[in-house]
């Protein structure tokens, strides 16, 4: 992999985000250690129906990644969990394997990164929170159950909404309060906030104090998995007891 002499001296990662997502890119960048570059491309689908739009993001992924042109990347993170939930694990895996070969660099989906993180923590009992409408929350629940995890609690912050893009307008502080109240009553091996569009990094540490167990989020898992996939050292963002995937990123988040 060729490296720029000044930027991205340890390597460069790519991230593909849904077209209107304001959260995935800044959180992903904040989680990367010093010396790691980041390049972004937007997944686009001119489709009003939210489930079909999410599916189109993955089915058109080859066209999206072609916009990186000749840029050399250690790995590309696809920051959309909903697409995986709707397509299912098998179809998503086949699509991503095919596109990775065509693109010439490993591609990591957010859902695959979450599963990798859960397995690394030997977590089987999972509490699941999302900002999804009911129809997508049902797909997420089915997905993780099919992957062999026991969902001890599921909770949607915005179950009545119709379009998944409404996620981007959710108030993160209010969401954190709701999640904190909910998880005070739930016992699990790990606690998962799924969805790349809702800010999660500002309150993961506080939630970990509430749960006493690992708190995972889509963007956190995606950055961790991409770094591992690209064989990039975690550096100053190495894990801690409270944050077993990546730690030391809080000051970067505070600057966002």
What can you see in these coordinates?
The protein is of the alpha/beta class and 256 residues long. The chain has two domains: 11-110 and 219-254, Rossmann fold (3-Layer(aba) Sandwich), CATH 3.40.50.12500; 114-217, Rossmann fold. The chain contains eleven helices and eight strands. It has a four-stranded parallel beta sheet with strand order 2-1-3-4. Strands 6-5-7-8 form a four-stranded parallel beta sheet, sandwiched between helices. The longest helix has 15 residues, at 89-103. The model has no long low-confidence stretch (mean pLDDT 92).
What are the defining features of this structure?
256 residues; alpha/beta; Rossmann fold; 43% helix; 17% strand; globular
Quick overview:
This protein is α/β, with parallel strands linked by helices. The protein has eleven helices and eight strands.
Low-confidence stretches: none
Instruction: Return the CATH class of the largest domain.
Output: Alpha Beta
**Count of discrete domains:** 2
Count of individual helical segments:
11
The radius of gyration computed from the alpha-carbon positions, rounded to a whole number of angstroms, is 17 Å
Strand content: 15-25%
Mean pLDDT: 92
What would CATH call the architecture of the largest domain? 3-Layer(aba) Sandwich
């Amino acid at each position: 992999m060729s490296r720029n002499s000044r930027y991205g001296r340890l390597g460069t990662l790519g991230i593909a985000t849904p077209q209107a997502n304001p959260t995935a890119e800044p959180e992903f960048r904040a989680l990367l250690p010093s010396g790691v570059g980041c390049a972004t491309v937007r997944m686009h689908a001119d489709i009003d129906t939210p489930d079909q739009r999410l599916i189109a993001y993955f089915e058109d992924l080859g066209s999206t990644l072609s916009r990186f042109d000749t840029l050399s990347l250690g790995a590309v993170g696809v920051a959309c969990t909903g697409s995986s939930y709707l397509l299912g694990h098998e179809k998503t895996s086949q699509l991503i394997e095919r596109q990775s070969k065509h693109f010439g660099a490993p591609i990591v989906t957010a859902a695959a990164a979450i599963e990798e993180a859960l397995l690394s923590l030997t977590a089987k009992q999972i509490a699941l929170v999302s900002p999804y409408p009911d129809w997508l929350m049902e797909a997420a629940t089915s997905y993780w159950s099919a992957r062999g995890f026991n969902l001890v609690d599921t909770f949607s912050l915005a179950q009545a909404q119709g379009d998944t893009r409404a996620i981007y307008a959710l108030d993160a502080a209010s969401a954190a309060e709701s999640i904190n109240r909910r998880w005070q009553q739930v016992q699990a091996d790990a606690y998962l906030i799924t969805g790349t569009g809702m800010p999660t990094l500002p309150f993961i540490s506080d939630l970990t104090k509430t749960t006493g167990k690992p708190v995972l989020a889509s963007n956190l898992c995606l950055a961790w998995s991409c770094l591992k996939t690209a064989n990039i050292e975690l550096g100053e963002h190495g894990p801690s007891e409270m944050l077993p995937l990546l730690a030391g990123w809080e000051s970067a988040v505070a600057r966002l």
